[in-house]
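Q: Hi! Curious about what Hemoglobin/transferrin/lactoferrin receptor protein looks like structurally. Here's the sequence.
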Amino acid sequence: MKKIYLFFVMCLAYINLNAQTITITDEETQLPISNVVITLDDKVNTLTSNNDGQVLLPEGVEYAELIFRNKNYKPLKLSKTELIALDYQVRLEHAFFTYDEIIVSATKSEEGETGLPQAVTSISEEQVALENPQTAADLLGTSGKVFIQKSQQGGGSPMIRGFATNRLLYSIDGVRMNSAIFRAGNIQNVISLDPLAVENTEVLFGPGSVLYGSDAIGGVMSFKTLTPQFSLSEEPLVTGKALTRYSSANQENTLHFDANVGWKKFAMLTSFTTSDYKDLRMGSNGPDDYLMPYYVVRQDSMDVVRENEDARVQRPSAYAQINLMQKLSYQASKNVLLEYGFHYSETSAYGRYDRHNRMKNGLPRYAEWNYGPQKWMMNQLKLTNTKETKVYDRFTLNIAQQVFEESRISRNFNKDDREIRAEKVDAYSANMDFAKRLGRKNKLNYGVEYVYNDVTSTGINENIATGVSQAGSTRYPQSDWQSAALYISNVYTLNKKMSLHAGARYNQYMINATFDTVYYPIPYTDVNINNGALTGSFGWVYIPNNSSKFSLNASTGFRSPNIDDIGKVFDSEPGAVVVPNKDLEAEYAYNIDIDYAKIFNDAVKIDVAAYYTYLNNAHVRRDFLLDGQDSIMYDGQLSKVQAIQNAANAQVYGLQFGLDIKFLKHFNWSTNINYQYGEEELDNGDISRARHAAPFFGKSAINFKQGKFMFNLNVFYQAERKFEDLPVSEQGKTEIYAADANGNPYAPSYYTLNFKAMYTLNENIAISAGVENLTDIRYRAYSSGLSGAGRNMVMSLRIKF
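A: Let's find out. The predicted structure is below.
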């Protein structure tokens, strides 16, 4: 019998000698599966299936075993003879929870999730299609592991493990998005990314400075956008999709289109999205403190307070956005791939809603407080060489140029003077990354990086009554920020059950700033900083069997001073002025993670991560000596001198817990909860709760998938944050919080019940619909100035071709 089987396999091998195209489909629906990562033996380089679920094995490639991985399917191992016996037709079985997904962000190289010492989560294109997030910030929030703060509808500031803003890093197709003016206050740069053009999102928890450099303290958010697909035949491959979506709470109208045309060696992809959002309506059941009873209009050269006809409508919060992406790929040879990417995003001007809630003497403090159009453009050129040499198995050169434009426009109520402050950052970066396997035990990643940011800041004071404009003080000096670094990391496999992970990075950062002393009467015009930072990591992974994993990871992260830290000269309080500090150095984070994951009987999965992070030499404002003087004349007044200094520390510890239970055949229950506690040292030396350590929050869901139909019934929730537990910096913000029984601000607990469903009619048409906040709760996420949407009906139609 065995001889007959071998004869049969040999016959198939002869028949399929030239059949090197693998087709991967869903075992139940027979629909093609894209983004399946295929690993050949223990090679560094991998293959990925296209939109038709197909992948071409390179000519002459030698392999004994292939591993097929995708977030939504069970991993599958096939030998060469088994693949031939299947006639290169591979079917994957759907999995309600991930077994061994391929992760890129943790090593800049494809790595099985079970082999990583730190916690990582990913958000797939399928999950985005079901959840229908409006922005990239909302996309991150769907994970249930990233807390999103919003001060306006055109925004979204992630919080991860007690850190936010310039202590988190954004990566787009491997390019650093953080600019030299990322501030400590909430930022909204992530919305520049189009969630409908994202192929996969990964969130790396904890410091990632070894690979990503400055700012990667609390975590790294890595976005991979749509990739052009080559044709695997002589005929051109033409694919794409169109989507239209409507949401009732803000009358969203979104239109999206992307198209791919590919030949054997050349492919191009175009993506375009336009979205329009009206003023957002909050829920009916909740604190009246969140209602908006008025709005301001300009009438007969006067600012007039109007009664809001519907106090649940948050005016002004409307905005619009467009996104354009163009990508080109050229397979120059068997091993050399050239890729070009162009990204452009622009929002309309939009109101910062929480500032419009501020009152002064019984009247609105501001008649205007708007962000001008936020613009982002990126040109990227990437070269990948997979020819194995003595130096590398894969080499990647990634060159990018980015332009960031943002502005602030403000005017006090019934005042004619309007302040316009605009910033432009031209950012250039170059990365060379190498991956090399040394025998079967060592996998080495190393590289070099250079980043240059040029900051231009302008100030205009405009009188709206006379129309006369004149130059005003700028938010930042004319300046540049540079970073040069080299890194190395290695994975050493002790045996089949244990591996060690180690890495180090040296980073040199430089700042040059020139101040205009007409507006800022400081005794010097130039500030120059040139310092270095050294970071490292060490991890241990133990996998006793196919259903368990235990890992321990110790790492350091850093954030170098940027232009926002040293460049703002302003009145911090009456009689005090903040000046630049030439001796400002990087702040460092020291972190330890302990992770445990276990699958029971292929039906229950638990994942627990405990962590502790200590931030040392944190940047805070303290009294300072300028040329030996503790006070200077500023704006006609003797003012105490202060500066941002390395003079404080902070600590955060917490727990992330995940539970997945498979019951019945097509149902599972999933829960992700997050607890974190943080303390930080204030400017005066007192200890306060950390501002960016969110209250207990999480997401629980019942998931169903059978054939072409899937749905999700989930609950988002946040615990209460009492007044006495609010950070000191938050306790005075009465305009964004509800009032407790004593009239003090606090963040009430809340939950939202949400239902999402999607039905795939065929390979080309999918309909999704849902209702968010079914019980119409009026809620506001911690530290947010904008209330969440009330009951919201979402409908979308997706057509593929």
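A: A fun detail: The chain has a mean pLDDT of 92.
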